[in-house]
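Q: For a teaching session next week I want to show students how multiple molecules come together into a single three-dimensional assembly. I've collected the sequence lines for a complex. Could you give me the predicted C-alpha cells for the whole thing so I can convert them for display?
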Amino acid sequence: MEKRRAAELLAMTMVIVVLFLQGLRLSRAAWNMRQPQRELTAQALNQRLVFQSALGIDVFGKLVYPLPPPEVDRTIVFLLRGKSIVSDLQFWHQVEGIVPTSSHIRLIGYCDSDDCINDIKAHREAFNFPVIAYGELVASQALINADEDGSSVLLREQWLIPHFLKWRTTDRRPLDIVREAMEK
Amino acid sequence: MRPVTNALVVILMLLTIADGCLFLYIRGAHTNASENVAFLHRIADASEPIKPPTGIDLHQAIVKTERTDLSGWAIRYASVSCPYCRKDNVQWELLGTKLKAAGYQLVVMVPALKDAYLEGAVVPTGTLQEVFVELGWIRHFRLSATPTLLLFDRKAGLIWGHEGTLSADDVASAVRTVDVWKAK
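A: Of course. Below is the structure for the complete assembly, covering every listed component.
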C-alpha cells in the first residue's frame, strides 16, 4: 500500500514538473507576443541585415553593377535624404573632390525619396558618382539602418562584413571620412 | 501522507489553470497579431503618406502598381531559395486568388536579385515581381524574414501584415480584414 502511494506521489510530482516547465515556455511566448516586445524583436531582426553589394538602378534608369572595376579597392555607400538633399550632396561632392585618385575609393549614393531623385537629375553635372533609386531590399534596408545611426557603409572585397563611417554628425568633415576610409 | 497528496493536487490544479490561461492568451494574441501591423513600420516614418510600391522587374522594366481601379495591393516578400516560402505556396495561392478576385494587385518582392523567381514561377498567375524597389517605399517598412505578407488598402495604408508561413486562420483573418476595409 505504501509503495503504491509513493509511486502515485512520484507520478504527480513529475506531472507538476512537466506543467511547470510548460508554463515557463508559455510565459516566454506570451511575453514575446506583447506588442512592444514584437516591435523590439522586429527592430532587432532588421538591424541584423547586412549590406553586401551595391546593386540597383540609378536615378537615370541605368544598372549600377556591384562588382567594382579592378582598380577600385574600397566602396563607400551612403544614403541621400530628400529632406536634407542640399547639405547631403554638398558633403559628398566635397568628399569626391578630395579623394585621391591613388586611393581607389569608389562612391555610390542611394536616394531615399522623389525629392532626392529630382534634385540629382537637376544637378547631374555636379558630381560623378552613381545614385541608386531602386535597390535590393536587404541592401537598401541595411543602408537605411546605418543611416539612422548617422553612418555610411564602407565595403571592401576582402571583408565579410562591412565597416561603418559616421558622417551625419556636426564634427565630421569630408576629410575625416576619406582619411578613415583609407585607414581601415 | 494525506496532507502531502492534497498539497500536490492543489499545485497540479493551479498549474493546469495557469497553463490553460496562458495558452488561451497566446492563441488570442496570435489571431489578432496580423491585424496589428505597427511592428512592420519604421517608427519614424509611420505617419508619412506611403505611395504604392514602384519597382523594377527582371528585364529592368518599371513595374507600375499605381492604378485607380484597384482595391489595394498585396506585397509578398519571398525568395526562391527560402524553404518556408515553398511550404507557404499553397496557402499563398489560395489567399492570392481570393485577393485578386477582390480587386487586389499582387506583387512579389525579393530580398536580392539572386532570390528572384524565374518568369512563370511566380504564383498565382498575374502576380508582378519587383527585383529592385524604390527606396522611398522601402524606408517605411521593416521586412526582415521571408515569407512576409503585407496588405494595403487603395490609399496605400498598411491594413494587415504577417511574418512567417500562413495558416488557414491567417488566410481567414486576411480575407476578413480586406472585406472590412472594402466596405469602408
